[in-house]
Design a protein that fits this description.
Length: 206
């Protein structure tokens, strides 16, 4: 059916910015804005564009085919293209140089593939610009890990002690059983004790 064919084509082109769509950068530093695309039927004369806050175009490029590298059509002077499409991944990432606080916002990587009936797809990154990177305080985490580890260690030690004690008790009980078994068949009459054998009765007088 034509409708199903169009749906299949629409989902053939995918654009990704990685596992997380948030990036934090230091003021006056360079920041990488990653973007890759995939297509199951290949591409021809593919067009990709980076937008800032949905409206401002900061980079525009074209890729003739899989065997050729992207061509820069237009770009912001502070934007550098660092991607490649002749390798394994179709990488169309850019680097924003000398980041300022005013650069914080939404960055959209938009791709259009004429080979897929001009299928279009995009992915978004949110950039935050800070004056100083805040170090994560892992003290509480380390304390929790230490306490949990200590409790696990104590539990293992307790289980080991319990097994040793149970082993000793079992051995002791086994020893007592052996003593009882061996003494129950002995004749202790020679030691002045009541023996286990029946006493010999004198023959009746005639």
């Amino acid at each position: 059916l034509p409708g199903l064919h169009v749906v299949a084509i629409a989902f053939a082109l995918e654009v990704s910015v990685g596992k997380t769509n948030t990036v934090v950068a230091l003021n006056n530093s360079h920041v990488l804005l990653p973007c890759t695309f995939t297509t199951c039927i290949g591409f021809q004369d593919l067009v990709f564009t980076w937008y800032f806050n949905s409206t401002e175009m900061i980079f525009h490029g074209k890729i003739k085919s899989k065997t050729s590298e992207p061509m820069v059509v237009a770009r912001n002077p502070r934007v550098e293209f660092v991607g490649s499409t002749t390798g394994k991944e179709n990488n169309i990432s850019i680097v924003l140089q000398n980041v300022e606080f005013s650069d914080a916002g939404k960055y959209t990587c938009h791709v259009k593939n004429p080979k897929e009936k001009n299928a279009q797809h995009n992915a978004t990154i949110f950039l935050t610009v800070v004056q100083k990177m805040v170090e994560t305080d892992n003290t509480l985490t380390l304390i929790i890990v230490g306490v949990v580890g200590g409790l696990i260690g104590l539990l293992i030690l307790f289980m080991l002690i319990k097994r040793v004690v149970l082993f000793i008790i079992k051995k002791t009980q086994d020893g007592k059983k052996e003593c009882l078994v061996s003494s129950s068949g002995n004749d202790n009459t020679e030691n002045g004790l009541a023996g286990s054998k029946a006493e010999q009765k004198a023959p009746p007088k005639a």
